[in-house]
Each structure stands twice: as structure tokens, then as C-alpha cells.
Design a protein that fits this description.
This protein is α+β, with helices and mostly antiparallel strands. The protein has four helices and 13 strands. The chain has helices spanning about 1-30, 50-55, 65-70, 275-285, and strands at about 95-110, 115-125, 130-140, 145-155, 160-170, 175-190, 190-200, 205-215, 215, 220-235, 245-255, 265-275, 290-300. A twelve-stranded antiparallel β-barrel has the order 1-2-3-4-5-6-7-8-10-11-12-13. The chain is globular. The termini are far apart.
């Protein structure tokens, strides 16, 4: 223990001497330099200015804090570079898509009378603007008894509602009619589907159509759908069996089974009634204005 303490004391004593000898030895190793003429009092020991490499690596001790705010710009890092020959990437809402939805393609049986009914719509466009084609009608004994065809431009008002404006054309039995159309289409709270459209026609005619549906899931594949459609007109049109005011109403239930989400056959029952002068015309033909219909059909889309 004494030897160790003695050794440590000798080391501390030799530290100062060793530093002086090391300085003189360094001067002796540089014989070409006259160190006696160097003024050590005027020598500057300021740090060297930061290099360009230090600026790029972000290790500058004098980095301006205002530069950090510009680096928050998501495009600042590009230093003016663009996509050059590469195509600019497209976001998900920039793509144009298309779909065809056949909501109802069904056979209808009522009092020994059988007919076909269709209700479909197709659209092409993006999330915010799209071209919409809607058609609904009835085919009886191979001829179009009634047909409503619409060409609309749809614009997304919110995530669940589209505004629509365009034209409607009615054909089939009676006089053909042309209308201007505007309305909304979408989902109300609790996923109630709604189509509400107003129409302005020639000779001061006006009309309003409201359709609503709701899918009640009994299971993930078995779905019960209540559906109601009502039509209002400002003027009677006996050739097309249309009354002023509330012209007709259809209310029914359809039970479908989805083998796939895109394909589902169904059966159902529907109550239909015609009002006003159109009902009088139907009765004059020996038919009933009110009837119960049994339905079998298919719902599909792609």
C-alpha cells in the first residue's frame, strides 16, 4: 500500500514537469520554425466558421431558428425538383369509376294479370361529380305501359347526399312528356335511402316524386326491405293515368337473400293505389284502382 501511494504522488508531481518537457520537445521537433518570435498573447482561438457540410447535416451550432419553420413545408425538401418524366400520382378521389345497380327486376302478379317491372340506375364519374342515368317502368304484354327515363348530373353535397339536376322523359301509353329535373339522393340517419326529385314540364306542369327504402338485416344475408313510392302532379293527364295532387302510391315489402352482395333474388308483396281522376278512368275500364301485388324478382349490381 505504501508503494502504491508513493507511486501516485510521484505521478502527480511529474505531471507538471512532463507537460513542460513535452512542450519543449514539440518545439525541438520543428526546427524550421522560430517559436521565440510568436506572440502567443495575440493568437485567436475563435471556432472556425461552419462548413457547407455542417449546414446540410443540421449540426451547425449557430443554426437560425427561423429555418426550422420553413422545413415544416412538405414541399421545401424538394429544392425545386418535380416529378420530371414520372407521372404525378393520383389520389383516390381523383379516379373515374362506373357502376350499374338494378334495384328491381321483377315479375308482378295481380288478379290474373302478369307484368314486368324494372328500376335501375347507372353512373359514371368520381366522388364529387358524376353522370347518372335512372330508369323505371312497367312492361305489360310485351309493350311499355309506362317508362320514366332520367339523365342527371350529380354533385356530392355531403358525404351522404348528392344533389342532382337534369332532364326526364316519359314514354309508353299516352302522350310523351319531357321535364326538367332537380332533387337530392342519399341516405338519411339510420341508413334510410331517399330519392326526392321535383320536375318542371311543358304547359306549366309540375311534379314531385319521393321514393324511400330501408334494409332491415335479419341475418347478414337475409334482408327485409320496406319500400314506399309516391307521386304528385300539378295537373291531370288522363292519357297517362295521372291525377292532380296525390296521383298514386306504392308500398311493399321485399325479402331477399344475398348469395353475394352483388346478386340477390327476392320475393315480396306490394299494395298499390291510384287516386283522383286517374282512378275514375281505371274503374271505367272495368279494373280496380287499388290492388295487391305478389312479386318475385332479382336485385344485382356491378
Amino acid at each position: 500500500m505504501k508503494l502504491v501511494l508513493v507511486g501516485l504522488s510521484i505521478a502527480f508531481v511529474n505531471t507538471g514537469v512532463g507537460a513542460a518537457e513535452s512542450e519543449s520537445s514539440m518545439m525541438e521537433m520543428m526546427p524550421g520554425h522560430d517559436h521565440s518570435h510568436m506572440n502567443h498573447g495575440t493568437m485567436s482561438y475563435e471556432p472556425k466558421p461552419e462548413t457547407k457540410a455542417m449546414k446540410h447535416t443540421g449540426h451547425s451550432p449557430k443554426q437560425d431558428l427561423t429555418q426550422s419553420t420553413t422545413k415544416r413545408d412538405p414541399h421545401a425538401y424538394t429544392d425545386g425538383l418535380d416529378f420530371s418524366s414520372l407521372s404525378k400520382p393520383m389520389m383516390g378521389d381523383g379516379h373515374s369509376l362506373a357502376a350499374l345497380i338494378v334495384d328491381r327486376l321483377e315479375g308482378v302478379s295481380a288478379r290474373d294479370d302478369f307484368s314486368m317491372t324494372y328500376d335501375w340506375q347507372a353512373w359514371f364519374g368520381g366522388d364529387y361529380n358524376r353522370l347518372v342515368v335512372r330508369a323505371e317502368g312497367e312492361i305489360d304484354q310485351g309493350t311499355f305501359k309506362s317508362a320514366r327515363n332520367e339523365l342527371l348530373w350529380g354533385h356530392a353535397l355531403t358525404a351522404y347526399w348528392d344533389t342532382q339536376v337534369g332532364v326526364r322523359y316519359d314514354s309508353g301509353l299516352g302522350a310523351d312528356r319531357a321535364w326538367g329535373a332537380f332533387g337530392i339522393q342519399g341516405f338519411a340517419p339510420y341508413w334510410i335511402y331517399i330519392e326526392a326529385t321535383a320536375y318542371i314540364g311543358e304547359q306549366g306542369r309540375a311534379a314531385f316524386r319521393l321514393e324511400t327504402e330501408y334494409d332491415l338485416l335479419i341475418t347478414q344475408r337475409l334482408i327485409l326491405q320496406p319500400r314506399v313510392e309516391v307521386n304528385f302532379y300539378s295537373q291531370s293527364d288522363s292519357s297517362r293515368l295521372v291525377s292532380s295532387g296525390l296521383s298514386n302510391i306504392e308500398a311493399g315489402l321485399r325479402l331477399r337473400y344475398e348469395f353475394k352482395r352483388e346478386f340477390a333474388p327476392y320475393i315480396g308483396i306490394e299494395w298499390a293505389n291510384t287516386f283522383g281522376s286517374a282512378a275514375d278512368t281505371i274503374r271505367a275500364q272495368g279494373k280496380k284502382a287499388e290492388e295487391t301485388r305478389f312479386i318475385v324478382g332479382v336485385h344485382f349490381w356491378f
